[in-house]
Amino acid sequence: MDLGDDERLLMPILHGSGKLYLLVVLMLGLVANMVWAYWGQLVHGLGKTGMDHPVSWGFYIINFVFFIGISHAGTLISAILRLSNAEWRRPITRMAEVITAIVLLIGGIHPIIDLGRPDRLLNIFRSGRLQSPLLWDVTSISAYFMASTVYLFLPLIPDIALLRDRGGRLNWLYRILSWGYHDTPGQKRVLERALTVMMVIVIPIAVSVHTVISYIFAMTLQPGWHSMIFGPYFVCGAIFSGIAALLIVMIAFRSAFHLEDYLKPIHFSYLGKLLLIMSLLWFYFTFSEYLTAVYGNEPQEIRVVMYKFTGTYAPFFWGMLFLNFIVPVSLLSSPRLRTIPSVLTASICVVIGMWLERLIIVVPSLANPRLPYRTGIYVPTYTEWSLFAGAVALFVLGFILFAKLFPLISVWEIRDGRGEGLENATERIKSYLPGYEPGTVGAPVSEGEPGQ
Amino acid sequence: MKDKIVFAVQLGTLSGIWFFSIGVVVWVIHLVRLAATLHDMPGGSLGISIVAAPIFVTVAIVLTYVFFGMRRVRD
Fold it and tell me: Pick from A147, A184, A201: which is nearest to B75 by CB?
């Protein structure tokens, strides 16, 4: 099938580049270092990390919360955009969905890394307590991973069929994965129905996942954690960091494969606005969270708050506020300033800022326990830094592998957008206007007798 | 690759997804029973399982619908 201009979308699959392979080698080096560091931890135990009494959670749990948060970029945003028929979604959704699948996998293994004895994971299957928030995490993350992988796979089928029809070395793989799709109207209908069901399922699952992650903290009576707004606060932060990660990936991919014609400034402007809204919302939650703590003036709570405001963690706390609020609001408020470079700057700041937020949540509460212990300190070791770098490298490698096998921008959705999508959008806009006669798409129901 | 082999691999993948989903349900039932035996808040466990288990089964049903639905209307 001749794709015309859209042939460009298959470029990452058909052609490689020296720079890309160099990046792969670099990332493989980081992964090898991660495996070596983890082996050291397996042999010598968690003593190889900076975790100690009373700070018994460190980088691994911070990264777990951070990566799962990033995963909200994909399926949730994609599902909302699809459900709301936002036509500008077409070049974005696939990338967003891929981020979710890869990052969930990476984030999900972090609690296992955090176990000094990973074999004890089997105890969850044998005698886990289902009423424990930790088990809620296991089930909700598994459900989210399964649902988002299916949600990535279903809209991928027409593109896999397209690759299958073009032949090539990997034809056997595309034949298996295309599930006998031949672009008939009936098959399209089946796929659309299934996608609609998945969209509706995926949104509550995505929201529940991060709410449940917040419960690991909020269900304890630890100062700084036992908060009622932690659920929505975590969901807000997850969507916030997710959008920022999506923007970074989009800009990198656009620049690497010259997809300026597909990923246009308008896409970055819309997502930039969304990032700005999330920044304001995140600030509102942060303000509420700390205001109630300070106003309550409970001594243990104040000890944790002061540790963040003026103590050891003050640079991280104020850095977080600067990166998550001051920078995005300054760069994205004005339409004139909302250019691609400033969107990229804001996104990078938000990703770093949101990682700091996870650090700020996890460590200070543990460092200042209710029991009469001295204030603890947490300094990550080489092992933890290696595993962190390796996790980021795994994400980059996963993304590159996906891009080498499948189109990162949905080809069939772009083609549909040019035809059916354009007609539907025009009809829909007409249907919003007064005096519109019922037509083919989005026709208003007449105000008559039921069933008329 | 022969069509029959392709179909067998596809069916194998779908069976794997069903195996996983049913495995999760069996695991959840086991934990609820364990909670009941130990008098360890079985009601809470049951509540969580009622929410969690159907999600896996629903996703597997959707995939099965797509797999067989697309074959049924191929022509």
Answer: A184
Interface test with B, best of A122, A124, A127, A131 (most B CBs within 10 A): A131
Whether A139 contacts B20, CB under 8 Å = no
From the CA of B33, how many Å to the nearest CA of chain A? 10
Number of independent structural domains in chain B:
1
User: Comparing C-alpha atoms, which of A204, A104, A198 is closest to residue A153?
Assistant: A198
Name the residue range of residue B35's domain: 3-72
A-B contacts (CB, under 8 Å): 99
pLDDT in tens, A336-383: 888 999 999 999 999 999 999 999 999 999 998 888 888 888 899 999
SS3 sequence of B14-32: HHHHHHHHHHHHHHHHHHH
pLDDT digits (tens, 9 = 90+) for A196-249: 999 888 888 888 888 888 998 888 888 888 888 999 999 999 999 999 999 999
- For residue A367, give every residue at least 6 positions away whose Cβ sits within 8 Å of its Cβ, in sequence order, or none: A54, A55, A307, A312, A375, A376, A377, A378
Answer for the pair A274, A267: CB distance below 8 angstroms, yes or no. no
Nearest residue in chain A measured CA to CA from B54: A143
